[in-house]
Design goal:
The protein is an alpha/beta fold. Among the domains are: 336-551, Glycoside hydrolase family 3 C-terminal domain (Rossmann fold, 3-Layer(aba) Sandwich), CATH 3.40.50; 581-698, Immunoglobulins (Immunoglobulin-like, Sandwich), CATH 2.60.40.10. It has a six-stranded mixed β-sheet, sandwiched between helices. A hairpin with a 5-residue loop joins strand 22 (659-660) and strand 23 (666-667). The radius of gyration is 25 Å and the shape is globular.
């Protein structure tokens, strides 16, 4: 069904409703209207890396991990599986009359906020710190969710609009102050690009933006989103955000005024209960029936596009046997393998011989952790392979011991319940091992969404520092004292520094993120060389003592690879392979109109087959505004057998090589444009770590 046909049907249906019936449909748990043949529908579902909160599903690597693949096609395949499993569940939920939360096919994903600060606990839900990469992966994810059939397979939703990247503790009343340059150069491009690519929904954020609550913003939704970008889908509030308008933002005094302000800003749907006050707001003439009607029409247009009112619902042939099935597990494992970033590999210590009979100790709080596989906004898989499990599977001839060694961030001596001080146990295992795999990091109880949990390390899910928690540093340093061959594996959703002593001692350092239900197997395959690491960092890994700007400051100066002050520890776009790639013959093919085309030859000159991610960065100057050091503007993956060479062509949208003025306008820069082509960004740290410089093309 075309969008136009669906809207016409929605108009006809809504025209038959009373005002009270229309108002009843503007909440996430919309009731049935039996006289019109409308079933109840719960809009609230999540699907950022698998179906959330309703039984078995494939639990893929979290969004930040998938972003490390730098592979939009792969992310699109994952999203297609998410919507397939969503339809499989939806079909059965309908059959058994279950219309509860997390049972529908409107997914409030992807989270395309920019991971502007490594302390933000929800950064794990995003595609990283770069506007271009976030846009490309977001578009692919949305297309995978929504499908390309006559009806929507499911409906995706870009969130959180806008400028929502922490702090978690004060998000319900926080005011994000952002100038137009940073707003349009960094915070809004992914929303603009996903809206113009056809996303069905947009979720408003909790915070204020320059003084106005995002879900009742006079410019953000009605002017920018609706009029300038032409968005004709539905807008939903973040959950409880409309209550914040009067309770914490103090933008208005009453619940009725808050509901009216949101509706007038064309927020169609309330995740929460504030829109229950729209009845009183209507009676007080704070809103009009036309405004109510417009919101209802937007919502029912989506429901028609999903095929809800068809005699035979689309995708009803997708069976329950698709959930975490063999085919989906295979994609899950492949995605995890291509999401794990190799940061250090001294003297080619890795890969390990899978037939080794050496003693291997697996030590650390994430050695046996399932929660560290899942991340947050996760479902429940039918099978989990922890790191220790995966190493046992792959290294079957080795003598393997496992110790937790410590908790994430709390150590207590003489605690009567035990399990508060396990460091000597972890060190004991390492002291008798030939190789120790230190599995460190966090989980969503430490970094996450508004956890309400504070200690010396975390504030409601946001990290207070960039080092590992002190108890893990103590474990890691002591293990390094007793074991010569240490491999460090970090499982978390953000930038973490293990400290100089551990970095200098470790033979290899790996960032595994939250790698999904089969993440332990994927990691073991990387360690053994059955899989060749190919992932790249979608965020900057900072030194633990890097002088970051204040967390509540939303100015981009000093943030991310584009405006970093000083050197990164491991830069955005960086990642090692077991093989080596060489670049030559970078050429400009064309630079006409809004597209620039370039090409380069890439050769695999190492000893392993491998996947290379070709990256193009643009550097330019403009006297009218600040410009980035350089800006990612194209990526393309190529698989090459050892000894193989390929010519790779990349197309660049001029949008990404334009300067943004202090007024938020995108203009051709008044300085020259230099394009850098290679497997990393053109910074000195990446060049030193990888041993070669990017090729250059000047426009």
């Amino acid at each position: 069904m075309t969008k136009e046909a669906a809207r016409q049907k929605a108009k006809e249906l809504v025209a038959k409703m009373t005002v009270e019936e229309k108002l009843s449909q503007l909440v996430y748990n919309a009731p049935a209207i039996e006289r019109l043949g409308i079933e109840e529908y719960n809009w609230w579902n999540e699907g950022s890396h698998g179906i959330h909160g309703a039984g078995t599903t494939t639990v893929f690597p979290h969004a930040i991990a998938m972003a490390s693949s730098f592979d939009p096609e792969l992310v699109g395949k994952v999203a297609d599986v998410v919507s397939t499993e969503g339809r499989a569940k939806y079909n059965k939920h309908l059959e058994f009359g279950d219309h509860d939360i997390f049972k529908g096919i409107t997914f409030w994903a992807p989270n395309i906020n920019i991971f502007r600060d490594p302390r933000w606990g929800r950064g794990q839900e995003t595609f990283g710190e770069d506007p271009f990469l976030t846009s490309q992966l977001g578009i692919s994810f949305i297309k995978g969710i929504q499908g390309d059939g006559e009806f929507l397979k499911a409906a995706a939703c870009s969130k959180h609009f806008a400028v929502h990247s922490g702090p978690e503790k004060s998000r319900h009343g926080f005011n994000s102050v952002v100038d137009k340059h940073d707003l349009f150069e960094t915070y809004l491009p992914a929303f603009e690009k996903t809206v113009k690519s056809g996303v069905c929904g947009v979720m408003g954020a909790y915070n204020r933006l320059n003084g106005e609550p995002c879900c009742a913003h006079s410019y953000l939704i009605p002017q920018l989103l609706r009029k300038q970008w032409g968005f004709d889908g539905y807008v939903v509030s973040d959950c409880g955000a409309l209550k914040d308008i009067y309770k914490f933002h103090k933008f208005v005094e009453t619940r009725e005024e808050a509901a009216a302000a949101a509706l007038k800003s064309t927020c169609d749907l309330n995740c929460g209960d504030t829109y229950e006050a729209l009845v009183d707001a209507y009676e007080q003439d704070l809103i009009s029936e036309d405004e109510i009607t417009a919101a209802a029409e937007n919502l029912f247009t989506i429901r028609y596009r999903l095929g809800e009112f068809e005699k035979t619902r689309p995708y009803s042939d997708i069976g329950y046997d698709k959930l975490d099935c063999k085919e989906h597990k295979a994609l899950n494992l492949k995605t995890a393998e291509q999401s794990i970033v190799l940061l250090e590999n001294k003297d080619n210590f890795l890969p390990l011989d899978k037939n080794t009979k050496k003693k291997i100790a697996v030590v650390g709080p994430n050695s046996l952790s399932v929660t560290a596989l899942e991340g947050n906004y996760n479902g429940y898989a039918s099978e989990y392979v922890t790191v220790a499990d995966g190493i046992r599977r792959i290294f079957g001839n080795a003598e393997i011991t496992v110790e937790k060694g410590c908790n994430y961030c709390e150590e207590q001596l003489n605690h009567w319940s035990g399990f508060k001080n396990m460091i000597s146990d972890g060190v004991a295992a390492a002291s008798e091992a030939d190789i120790t795999i230190l599995v460190l990091g966090l989980d969503c109880s430490v970094e996450g969404e508004d956890t309400g949990f504070d200690n010396d390390y975390t504030a409601s899910g946001d990290k207070r520092m960039l080092f590992l928690p002190a108890t893990q540093q103590k474990l890691a340093q002591t293990v390094c004292d007793v074991c010569e061959n240490v491999i460090v594996v970090l499982m978390c959703g953000s930038s973490i520094d293990v400290g100089e002593k551990v970095r200098n001692h470790a033979k290899a350092v790996i960032h595994a993120w939250y790698p999904g239900s089969l993440g332990g197997l994927a990691l073991a395959k990387i360690l053994s060389g059955e899989a060749n690491p190919s992932a790249r960092l979608p965020v900057t890994i900072y030194k633990g003592d890097h002088n970051l700007p204040d967390f509540e400051n939303y100015n981009m100066e000093g943030r991310t690879y584009r405006y970093i002050d000083g050197d990164a520890l491991y830069p955005f776009g960086y990642g090692l392979s077991y093989t080596k790639f060489a670049y030559e013959n970078a050429k400009l093919i064309s630079a006409d109109g809004e597209k620039i085309s370039v090409s380069t030859e890439v050769a695999n000159i190492g000893g392993f087959d491998g996947k290379e991610t070709v990256q193009v960065y643009a550097s330019y100057t403009d006297s009218r505004a600040a410009t980035p050091h350089w800006q990612l503007c194209a990526v393309k993956s190529v698989m090459l057998k050892k000894g193989e060479k390929s010519e790779v062509t990349l197309d660049i949208d001029r949008y990404w090589v334009k300067a943004v003025t202090m007024y938020g306008e995108r203009v051709d820069p008044d300085g020259k444009i230099t394009l850098y082509i290679g497997g990393h960004q053109p910074d000195a740290v990446s060049t030193n770590l990888l041993g070669y410089s990017c090729l250059k093309i000047e426009l």
